[in-house]
Write a structure and sequence with these properties.
This protein is an alpha/beta fold and about 180 residues long. It contains 6 helices and 5 strands. A 5-stranded parallel beta sheet has the order 2-1-3-4-5, covered by helices on one side. Strand 4, helix 5 and strand 5 form a beta-alpha-beta unit. It is globular.
């Protein structure tokens, strides 16, 4: 089985290792730029699974959008401060993953998405954006063209170095046991 891991140079991807039965393709931005439709369309590897690990979270967007208060009425003015990089976030987080799904839908056996714990309200913008992408893929994989694809949404763990090795092992274990994995779809 060949599994594409977006964000191939990230912390989680570097802790996911090939097994006898699974080859993880972990391209960097130079090989698969999720901010470029042409790059996504020209990436031509045969894949059976997709791990959505590439994510763009622009701290500038968070700093301006994440602290907008509805109580003091200035959120409309502060909304104008959002940088154009917001569009880049949308491309990487939403559009690129949909293009990959549509490009590979005939061969995909599963999609795995790393969701987030929503209890930390300090990063509510980040959490809400992750939940919106999760909802999008839950809905898309119920459509007739994508019904054969298992959708797995997982909250990996705290993104600290001493957890990541175990996270990588758990991900590989889930994929190795894909046939017995039950999804809520």
């Amino acid at each position: 089985m060949r599994v594409l891991v977006t964000g191939g140079k990230g912390k989680i991807a570097s802790n996911i290792h090939n097994t006898e039965n699974i080859t993880f393709l972990k391209p960097g931005r130079e090989e698969l730029d999720l901010n470029s439709v042409n790059s996504i369309l020209s990436y031509n590897e045969d894949i059976d699974g997709l791990i959505i690990n590439g994510w763009k979270f622009h701290s500038d967007v968070f700093n301006k959008w994440g602290h907008l208060s509805l109580e003091n009425g200035d959120w409309i003015e502060k909304l104008k401060l959002l940088p154009d990089s917001w569009k880049d976030n949308q491309m990487v987080n939403y559009t690129s993953n949909q293009i990959l799904l549509r490009k590979y839908y005939t061969t995909l056996k599963f999609i795995m998405f790393f969701n987030t714990d929503t209890s930390n309200r300090k990063y509510h913008h980040y959490s809400n954006e992750k939940l919106m992408v999760n909802d999008l893929f839950c809905r898309l994989t119920k459509e007739p063209y994508f019904k054969h694809i298992k959708y797995i949404s997982a909250v990996p763990s705290a993104m600290i170095d001493n957890h990541l090795e175990g996270v990588g092992r758990n991900i590989v274990n889930m994929i190795e046991n894909l046939d017995t994995l039950i999804t809520r779809k």
